[in-house]
Structure formats: C-alpha cells, structure tokens
Amino acid sequence: MNPFERALRQLVPAAVAGFVFLAPATAGPVDPSVYRQHVATLASDGFEGRKPGTVGETRTLEYLEGQFRKLGLEPANGPSFLQEVPMVEIAAAADASLSFSTGTEVAPLKFRDDMVIWTKRVKETESVTASQVVFVGYGVSAPEFGWDDYAGVDMRGKTAVILVNDPGFITKDESLFRGRAMTYYGRWTYKYEEAARRGAAAAIIVHQTEPASYGWNTVVNSWATPQLDQETSDGNAGRVAIEGWITEAAAEKLFAANGKSFQEAVRRANQRGFRAEVLSSTASASLRNTLRRAKSYNVAARLPGVKRPMETIVYMAHWDHLGRLPECSGDCIFNGAVDNATGTAGLIALADAFMRAPRKPQRSILFLAVTLEESGLLGSAFYVDNPLFPLASTVAAINMDAMHFGGPARDVTVIGFGASELERYLASAAKKQGRVLTPDPTPEIGSFFRSDHFNFAKRGVPALYIKGGVDDREHGAEWRRKYLAEFTTKNYHQVGDNYSPDADLRSGVENLDLLYAVGSRLARETTFPNWNADSEFRAARDRARAAAK
Ligand SMILES: [Zn+2]
After folding, report:
1. Using CA atoms, how far apart are residues 349 and 396, in angstroms rounded to an integer?
2. 153: CA distance to ligand 1 center in Å?
3. How many Å lie between the centroid of ligand 1 and the Cα of residue 373?
4. End-to-end CA gap in the chain
5. Ligand 1: distance of its center to the CA of 339 in Å?
6. pLDDT single digits (tens) 404-452
7. CA 441–ligand 1 middle distance (angstroms)
8. Sequential DSSP letters for 9-68
9. Around 460, how many Cα atoms within 13 Å sit in the side-chain half-sphere?
10. How far is the CA of 340 from the centre of ligand 1 (A)?
C-alpha cells in the first residue's frame, strides 16, 4: 500500500476504501468480508501452521467441518465430513547400497555423494540383484507426441537409467513436446511410474542441474530423508523395487565402463526415433527401512445438484502447511497465510456464495479441502484412488493454491495454459471482469504438476489452476513481477508468510468471483468439457467417459 492509500484507509472504513480503489464497479458473488475473516482465522497462530499429525490439524479439521455444517452443506462421505487418508513414513538406513558391475569390475556408488535410492514399497528390506542396465533416454512413452523411448525393449526385471525433463526442453526445439514448457513426461514422478508400467525392477534418474532446475543438494535433501507416502492396499507393490537418482558424474563413469560416452547418449536421446540401449553392466542395490504409520484427513462437503446430482464440480484447496520451526524463538509458526489459508478460505467463501445464490445448482458441487499437499500431494492422490463420487462424471476440478495478496489485475494467469476447454469458460467469465487470460510466465518449472489438481488431471478429470494475473491495474506489470519475486524469496514456505489486517485481498476475491462464474455455469450445463486434443491427459478422459456410457 502506498502512503497516500494508507492515509486514506485510516480516514475511511475499509469497505469504502475498497470501493474507491476497486476497478470493477459491481460487487461479485463472493463476500470479501467472509473471505477475509477465514484467511485471518486459518493463518492465525492458534492454528499452529496446520501441520498434519499436530494440534494444528485437529483445529483446522474442526474449523472446516464447523463452517461447512453452519452453511448447511451435506457431509460428502456418508455421514462424515472427513475422509481418512492412511499414510506411511519410510525411512531408509544410511547403509543403502547401489553398485554397477561391468565384466569383473564392480563400481559401488556412495549414498548421498553419488546416489540416493529408496523404495516406495512398504517393506522393511528391498533389493535387486544383477539387474541388466538399460539406458532408456527420457523414459517417455507419449503417443500424442509421436515418441516412445521404450519401443522394442522388454524391461521386465531390468534397471532403467533415465534422463530428467523432456527433449523439447533440452533442445529448445518448439516442435518437440512443448519446447521450453515442461510436460507431464518431463516430471521425475512420471519417469518412475512409466518404468513400473514396463515391469522394470529399478528406475534410476540421472541428475543434470539445468533440466532438473535444481542442484544435487536438493535431490539429497528431498530424498535422503524419511519419506511420507500413501499406504495403498497392496503396499505399493506396483512400484518398481528400487527408485533413485545418480549424479551426472556417476552416469559418465557407468557409460565409460561400457566404452561409451554419456554425453553422446544424451544427444541421441534428444532425437526422434531414439532406441533404448542395453548396456553390458548390471545393477545391484539393497535397502533397510524403518516404517511408521499415521493418518490424516481430507474434508469434503457437498451441495447436491437438483437435477443431475451424480455429476460433480469439484472446488479444492489444500488445508495443510508446515507447522512450527523446531527449537526456535520469536516467529516460529509457518502460518501459511498465502499458502494456503487463502485457498482454504476461498473454499468456504465459495460455499457461502453458492448457498446464498437464489437458485440451487443442477449438478452437485463438492468442496474438498485436501491434506498432505506439502508432503507430495498425498491427500488428493488418495481422493482420486478412492473418489467419493465417480471421476468419470466429475465435470471439472478447480484448484486454489496460494492466491496471492494484492489488488485487481488486467489479466488472469493460467497455469498449464492451453490444456483444456475449461479455458473457454474462464475466458468468457474473465471478459466480464475486463480481464484477459495470460499463460504461466515460467512454464519450464512445471507448476502445473506441483499442486493437487494434477492428481485429477492424471485420471483425466479436466482441471483448472489459475493465479491472480501479472498486470496490476494500479501499479503495472513490473511492480507485480517484483512483488511475486519477493514473495518467493522472502515468504514462500517460510515463517514470514503471514496475514495482517492491512493485507490487500482484492486479487483473491476477484479470482474467487471468476471461479464462481466458471463453476456455476458448469453446474447449469449438461456438457463435459474435455482436455484439448494435444493434451497428455486427453486419452485418460476419453477412456473414462467411454467406459461410463
Ligand atoms: Zn500450496
């Protein structure tokens, strides 16, 4: 807020100041005071940073259930507003081993220095022995891009050595995949999933700083620590036995032992028609794990549709955040005001708007506050594995994660721009606000794959994930860019992500009005908007819709 605005705000009540500075003249469906009240409450110290497994979880769940009940929504899980999410923490001992053998030569890799490995299988020990190593390039099988790195190779029992990201990113060739923008196939999560579908015993990604977008340290900090995961009924038996990363230097040594050049192999992997290459090396690995089981909860409330109640529009936001800093004095609580008190408060504010609307929706609206986003999108992953309403008739998943503070904007940022027909709905609603859609300014970091709607997308459900725009109406684009950059360096996932009463929430309200317009229109229609034809999620949707008919 500039000094003039601050002075004016002190002279006149906030509502009047809001009227003075708010560009669109008409009030939208969402009540700004309701949104503000819930952001302030959820971000307060009493909620202890909303970490699963703490008193912060108990308070958040009680609060959300209480609000949904008060608004007159139905519990969405039989008689309950809660959906239990079982999870397991798998901690590998430091003696985890991985070695490559070539002929009579055995090359052991050092845990943390040269490699990190783990297993997603819920087991106290896991190993692979003398498994044939196959270099599978990017490990991508993408019919819509005419690309199959696994063509003609039988991976059963073998060890896949895989590059991170996709050929479009590496070559900057806009005709390959989506050029600089990361696709689903570029994400490391996909690499392990595809290797498992191929029946591989182990899947090892080669770390390279630029395509990974982070250094080896980040790999070690993320993976050489206890990992929380979903506890599935089969103990994650469908995953490969051993997953991991090796350094680029370790990959170079492996190729050199085979009389080959790793960099030459990378060049081949970037070319159309690449064929996987069976190396003469074998891999052996073993792990000992400590297992700890726990559970958390999604909160789900429903407004049943009056005409087509089994067709559902989902609004979602993760309620969880990071808790408290251990051994700390001063500001020790990760209040997570932006991330994600805003989205969670947005759910309540949207529910309030739908309940106040003169006409009830024809399709059902599900308000879903998911847990364990910060631990790898686990609450939403559990939901799509155990949906409360069929995914094939779930019309859209609209996600709110970190709705930034700030004033109204001339645009609305679409993360994963160009992906689905939902953008047509968004564009026409945005036009009524005098706004236009703009693509994610940094598609190379793959934000689309880093929040909960992604789990719905993987199952084919069209998903929408927007941000408040980059062109601020009062201060311009450069000001907004600086504001967002400063949030990322100073506050993102830090104790400084706080709420204060002079926080400007107009951007959030503007976006909630927009998402309300999209959801309420979908709730009146009989159509099922799909992913666009070139989307990596289209095939899953077509299959699901065909099976449902
Ligand atoms: Zn978040």
Report:
1. 19
2. 39
3. 7
4. 54
5. 5
6. 999 999 999 999 999 999 999 999 999 999 999 999 988 888 889 999 9
7. 18
8. HHHS-HHHHHHHH-SS-S--SS-HHHHHHHHHHHTSGGGTT--TTSHHHHHHHHHHHHHH
9. 19
10. 5
